[in-house]
Amino acid sequence: MYLNVLPLLLALISGISCHEYYDFDYGFAMYQMSSPNCAPECNCPANYPSAMYCDELKLKTMPIIPPGIKYLYLRNNMIESIEEKAFENVTDLQWLILDNNRLENSKIKGKIFAKLKQLKKLHINYNNLTEVVGPLPKSLDDLQLAYNKITKISPSSFEGLINLTFVNLQHNQLKEDAVSAAFKSLKKLEYLDLSYNQLTKLPSGLPISLLTLYLDNNKISNVPDEYFKRLSALQYLRLSHNQLADSGIPGNSFNVSTLIELDLSYNKLKKIPAVNENLENYYLEVNEIDKFEVKSFCRVLGPLSYSRVKHLRLDGNLLSHSKLPSEIYDCLRVANDITLE
Ligand SMILES: *[C@@H]1O[C@H](CO)[C@@H](O)[C@H](O)[C@H]1NC(C)=O
Ligand SMILES: *[C@@H]1O[C@H](CO)[C@@H](O)[C@H](O)[C@H]1NC(C)=O
Ligand SMILES: *[C@@H]1O[C@H](CO)[C@@H](O)[C@H](O)[C@H]1NC(C)=O
Ligand SMILES: *[C@@H]1O[C@H](CO)[C@@H](O)[C@H](O)[C@H]1NC(C)=O
């Protein structure tokens, strides 16, 4: 969890220099310096007047948003609806952060997001959404709708979003029918988090630009042959806490030369799936593995043919040191730690 929250925090902090963020802590002083046309209940730091902070104010409706605001924070309120004119004065809004409110799709009126032609970040984590909001503006690069009750993505939701690179949909109720083909047109998508949903199959039509794909905590039981070959840039893949067994994994499923990290922990594997020599972190804890075969890591051994695995977790399996073959270190030459129990 922390790993997932961290990028969000960093993203929030990185947009504002540390100095300004720090100043914001001087509550009362800041209030007096709040720029004159700020909504009375909110805070617009004088040295950062294009940001308006309206966090934790028990708001049920949107405050007045004056012209000039580009970064709008409305976290931890009780906002249930957004009227069609809410952003009429700020059509050049760039960040809209609405985490932890009570928004439902039916109470977000009109095409309000599509009209924000400069919008880059839209965060509506921890709300009561049942489908992906939209239409969305083509300028968007970061969409976060985690911790909702989303079951539906309309086929046109992501159409034409050429700059969308980061999508977080973890902790929703998505099944593969809803997801398949939805992301197809996202030519720049690098990060997709679909963990903690209800997928029983890997989604089809994922964009080949993906670097990071999180599918952990679903109900996926098999990997179609060559599935990951298509994703020719993929570096980080999590499939932990699914229902993967040996029979559902064709021989070279995870032998993908770009992969740096692969998490297959908490599944039902009896054998170690073969991986590429370039893989560095391999998580296999809590499976049913009872045999360590060097050929899962190295088909051939030679001066340059060896596994780059640094961290290998095998605890919670049926392995002990005595079951490790002696040639293991000819193959796993750079392993820093191999955890067995
Ligand atoms: C837009 O600005 C005008 C004038 O400053 C204000 O009266 C109006 O309430 C604002 N609209 C919204 C939706 O904030
Ligand atoms: C939103 O979801 C919470 C938690 O599931 C629920 O208690 C609440 O009644 C919902 N609110 C609305 C307005 O539907
Ligand atoms: C996409 O991003 C590029 C580079 O930041 C920018 O020049 C372009 O206008 C963006 N496209 C849209 C549709 O916003
Ligand atoms: C992975 O695939 C490459 C060819 O793409 C092959 O040379 C290598 O032996 C395979 N590795 C394993 C461990 O099967």
From TrEMBL:
GO terms for biological process: positive regulation of transcription by RNA polymerase II; positive regulation of transforming growth factor beta1 production. It comes from the Eukaryota. Its main location: secreted. Keywords: Disulfide bond, Extracellular matrix, Glycoprotein, Leucine-rich repeat, Proteoglycan, Repeat, Secreted, Signal, Sulfation. GO terms for cellular component: extracellular space; fibrillar collagen trimer. Transmembrane segments: none annotated. One of its GO terms (molecular function) is collagen binding. It is found in: Secreted, Extracellular space, Extracellular matrix. The keyword rRNA-binding does not apply. Residues 1-18 form the signal peptide. Residues 37-71 form the LRRNT domain. Binds to laminin. Belongs to the small leucine-rich proteoglycan (SLRP) family. SLRP class II subfamily. This is Lumican. The gene is LUM.
